[in-house]
Give the backbone structure.
Amino acid sequence: MKWATRAGVHIDRAACAWLIRRHLDAEAEFVFVDDPARVPPEATPFDMRGAELGHHGGDCSFETILRRYELSDPVLWRIAEIVHEADLDDERFDAPEAPGLDVILRGLSMTCADERVLELSGPLFDGMYEYYRRAFLLGRPPA
Amino acid sequence: MSGTAGQWVLLAYRIPRRPSTLRITIWRKLDRLGVARLGDGLVALPADARTREQLEWIAEEIGEVGGSATIWLASPGSTAQEQAVATGMRQARSAEYQAVIAQARAAASARPGERARVVKRLQAELRRIDRRDFFPPTERDAARHAVRELARRDTAVEASADSAEATEGTQR
């Protein structure tokens, strides 16, 4: 399937792309557009104004996708808290990881093209997922 | 920012009068971003990828609660106009930094545990102010210094308490 989002990807879009590829659509193909009007007709837009998969009711797009596709994995919801704070920084959650992740993604978006940012951030989110999965099983931070 | 007029992103909006909690929620969000209020239902921020996105999402949210909002990219008609807006923003941040300085000074004589809590709170407050500080006033450095100083005192007290314990230990 084709998925479209705004060019100049940052934390929320990078995390959404990872979520889509890992949990919704392994064959996902991403296009980046500057103008919502340029979204290809066959593509599903995300993290764009006017898109169903955008910010809603104080949620960031990552949280919206989790809700919309009924993904209830607590590990994904823990990552959602971090993405939410890195993106919105509204102190809804206690996520001390967020400012660091924000800097990493912001830096990547300065040095890399959007496709490359997704290539690089994918393994980062895989690692985060594994970390919080173990933390969840252990009930404490894993070694 | 230099003397030349830069790009600004504007949000023109209308929010239903009731319920008033909606208006307050949106106002709080705008305050948090440090917007300049240009008029009723018109706010501005210096344009960059982040500020534009922040205002776009707020515009979206205003639409969802039954209001209307549009986003504009604009440059001021004159640099004097821009400077007046920038000065207003700088003064708003200046007042916030001054509040931090006052709280840091007041906490200097607090008990060590209390002082540590104040340090944490003021560090978080400084980060918040910093993110909406587009035209840094001179008080910024003073505020950072005041919080650093308070943190330093606090660790100094802890260190001396630790060494006191260590001495006690060797005496035993």
